[in-house]
Amino acid sequence: MKLLVTFSRKGGREPVIARTVKETGVLINVERANIDSMAGEVLVDVPDTDADLVCRKMRETGASVRILEESVLRDVDECIDCGACISICPQDVFSFDGEWRLVLDGSRCVLCGKCIPACPHHALSLLS
Hints:
Number of strands: 8
Number of domains: 2
């Protein structure tokens, strides 16, 4: 399960992910991170069975945790199955099926957003 974790560094430099791994024993896969001296946003992947435990432990450190049910969204009425998103995506989220229709595997998405400007019909968006 993908979790979007945000935290502020104003209260100190608490190692949110390291502490959570240590205290829960759950291995956390960091898929994307944007951290500076003031705050951070990290996209992590954890086993579905451990998501509640990980969320609770991270929130105890003061982090905000959002469970992502979906990642990139596709407006099927606007999408023309052109495949412009396929070549730009670094995670192979997009592909064609046997009938050349666009298929989206959201579990692979790391919310990089590269597909958004690549879509000529503006059919793709990220979660808000």
